[in-house]
Amino acid sequence: MKEKKKLVDLSRAEYDILRTLWNAGQLSVREVHDLLTETYNWAYTTTKTMMDRMVNKELLNRESFHGVFIYKPLITRPAGLARMVQFFADRVLEMDVGSVVSLFARSKSLTPEEIDELNNLLVEKKDGKK
Predict the structure, then answer these.
(1) Residue 31's CB: how many other CB atoms inside 10 A?
(2) Residues 63-117 pLDDT 10s
(3) Are 6 and 25 in contact (CB under 8 A)?
(4) What pLDDT is attached to residue 1?
(5) Residues near 4 by beta carbon (within 8 Å), at least 6 away in sequence
(6) Helices H / strands E in the chain, number of each
(7) Which residue of 15, 21, 67, 120 lies most exposed, with the fewest beta carbons within 10 A?
């Protein structure tokens, strides 16, 4: 059985890189850079540095394919959202995490399986298991 990873804190930029990869599955640095160029006015080397740091944090996997590094997310979308949802629920909305999770269910932005995973991650964190 695969060991569950601790919920990680993500910066907005890291989340945006992950979101781009969740949507595409796998991409090169150049492809991620080109997709994020309107949001971030980074140099290509900045995008590469960010993604390499995310590999070191075990957020991304990097494999060489015909001389080009291809990156894939190592965490699921719900795992990436869990900390942000927890922060937003606790500090911004000052409401129960379950209420915020139900907003995702109503919006259809996550699949039912992803909503279950998000809820389980947040319950585990609340119960002190992570």
Answers:
(1) 17
(2) 999 999 999 999 988 888 877 777 767 666 666 777 766 766 677 777 888 878 8
(3) no
(4) 32
(5) 124, 130
(6) 6, 3
(7) 67
The rounded distance, in Å, linking the Cα atoms of 124 and 103 is 19
Rounded distance, CA 129 to CA 37, Å? 38
Contact status, residue 83 vs residue 8, Cβ threshold 8 Å: yes
* CATH numbers and ranges of domains, the chain: 12-73 (1.10.10.10), 77-126 (no CATH)
Half-sphere exposure of 57 (CA within 13 A, CB side): 18
HEC string for 24-93: HCCEEHHHHHHHHCCCCCCCHHHHHHHHHHHHHCCCEEEEEECCEEEEEECCCHHHHHHHHHHHHHHHHH
> Would you call 64 helix, strand, or coil by DSSP?
strand
How many Å apart are CA 113 and CA 76, to the nearest integer? 11
- The torsion of the CA quartet 84, 90, 92, 93, rounded to 10 degrees, works out to 110
Instruction: Write out the two tokens for 33.
Output: 């850079």
